[in-house]
Specification:
With 765 residues, the protein is mostly beta strands. Among the domains are: 14-140, Immunoglobulins (Immunoglobulin-like); 493-626, Immunoglobulin-like; 643-764, Jelly Rolls (Sandwich). The relative contact order is 0.09. An 8-stranded parallel β-barrel has the order 10-11-14-19-22-23-24-26, surrounded by 5 helices. Helix 1 packs parallel to helix 2. The chain contains 10 helices and 49 strands. It starts with 13 loop residues before the first strand and ends with a strand.
Length: 765
Amino acid sequence: MRKNRIKVPRMILLIGVILFSQIALHPNVSEAASTGKLLYDVTTDKAMYDPGSKVELRIDLKNKLGRNIVGGSVEITAKYLQEQVGETITKALDLNNNTDLMMMANWTAPESDFKGYLIEVHVKDAAGAIVDSDTVGVDVSSTWTKFPRYGYVWDFNPNTNTTERIDKLKNYHINVLQYYDWKYRHHKPVSPNMVQWDDWSGRVIYGDTVRSYISQAKAMGMSNMAYNMIYAATSGYDLDGVERDWALYYADDNPNGKGNFSFKMSDSTSTGITDLYFFNPRNPGWQNYIFGEMNKVFQTFDFDGWHGDTVGEWGKMKTADNQTLYVKDTYTEFLNNAKQAIGDKKLVFNPVGAQGIENVNKSSVDALYAEIWPWDRDSDGMLYDTYYSLKKEIEQSRRESGGKSLVVPAYMSYDYGEQNPGSPFNTAAVMLTGASVYAAGGARMELGDNGNMLSNEYFPDQNLYMTEELQHRISKLYDFIVAYENLLRDGQTETTNRIEFPAYASSAYGDANKIWAYGKKDSQYEIVQMINLLGVSKKDWRANDGQKETPQQISNFEMKYYYSNEVNSVWLASPDANDGRSKPLAFTKGKDRNGKYLKITVPSLEYWNMIYMSVEDSGCETDASMKEYVVNGNFENGQQGWTYTGTADHGVDSNDAYEGSKYWIYGSEPYTASVFQTVSGLNPGTYTVSAKVKQNTGNPSSSRMQLTGYGGKPVYVSIPHGEEYTTISKTVKVTNGSLKITFSQTASGDTNLQIDSVVVELKDK
């Protein structure tokens, strides 16, 4: 409450029915990532599915490879965390260049309730090389309340395309909607005119649009919550059966106001309604009245529940008979009675500013929701203004509620949006706040209104917009929180296990310019949540001025984790890399005065990584020789980690790659060119470097891989001319921790070089 004021199918070209069993197979540990050259999008027909139900996958392909795909294939695999579920299904694919195709496939979800899955889609050419890849999350849950993903709608005009709007939110896996200011009056939500009515501000609401939203949302697996305050009425309430004796008044010693406890929403409206008047939530007369009005809502519209709201805690109040109270102290009783009164309908409630949230947490609400403002304080007196304060409240609410996941509306860049309407959100600010909430086991309330993002508590205000980059990142983020919901908010508790990063400053409290890392655990896994605040100068989540530095991305750095139980496998998953896939990590074990530890080389950290460890053996070697030393050695993340010098054209694409993507160099005129990477943090020893290379156009005067192990002598290996990829490799001695890998070529013109699958392995210590 205010404190201050899709894609549409063109044609179905191929339908395949895919039935996955629940047999766990050995995980596919190969890496891939979307390039956008062929796979345009992968979506599902619903936001959430009942166990054992049919999941319809839609795979949109747009061939921009510059060549036809003949004799290719589409492979679809389901994963539960790191384990494959069922068999990989292969479908034939022929797709000419510059041609579109929409492929449909059905997956029968497993019977287990409350599970998240990641569906992986690989497109391969006739040679079996991956030319593009993508993923999508699938939530198999019988109700939204365990893993809420809240969204909202507010536009109830007659020409609103409700199907398109709900479809956009479905693609973010939003599974419950708040219908903001849909009602007639706060104390009388159902209008006498069921065709159309005005809300308190004079906005015209059309009943058929409300009903259309509800039916479309239900068809796409979403629930619908009717927004209304728990204790508010507008002017004229005394004519509708509301008794003045139920009202609340400011106590004599309350500095926030005098007389009737009320709230000004606007200076003027076309309805003449400008103020809300508040009533005692503990008063039996008021309870009976408002519960009856909400049951009229459910009799008239097919809503699934009541989303209750307040304007926060305003200090000591008194009743008409001079009894004093704080509104927050009435929450438990009111909510328990409300839940009983509305029967099987769901109940959610917003204690604004998390004031009195402890009383909500022990009530009968079906899910937790608290609008966070940075000037409010928690029960320990801590301001809700930092990343850590969000984590702290999410975890506290989980403990007090018996395991419920707190939904956090926390409006980004609030003042900046009001002062600079039409500006974009700061991507780093949004991603860091999201990571802070989701890693802690909470959820956000940020998406709605045709796929837009909130920056204001009055939902019709649309001050800021998401850039294309942010839209893509948010889409991947929501896939991630679905796929890993069982590691994020399914019984995990906090640990105090020691976590060290020898090369970087770190903190367990979200401090600026540090890696924010902390531990979690459940019955099967030990988990490290790792959020990148390196290069971020402030630890405030709100970024009220619209400014937030992008974190310094780091690669191939060591983490030392002191574990509790035996660990035989380590996995990394991130919404920022590999389309959310789990990646096995090699590790070594040791022991020192602080206890038993693992040493893990983390390939990269952009915004948020999750590392999870299990006693179960992943089947991957834990020898140090298996560490992935090279950053982006398969070029699935473009040119990340590599530096180019020279005069030839160069880049990364999937055309004629050995697998996935390749690095290419080509010049029509004479040139000298090189691409290199320096690998650091190596232990002394002899290393083997290998790569897949192809040089089949022109005849270079020099083409080679050079290895410079600082402290040792440089070594070289020539790149041969040939029509097929060949493997080159060379060993080099490293004594001072660094190894430079360079691919260079000098040619007279019309000459190429292609590089793929660069790997460094420790041969001898």
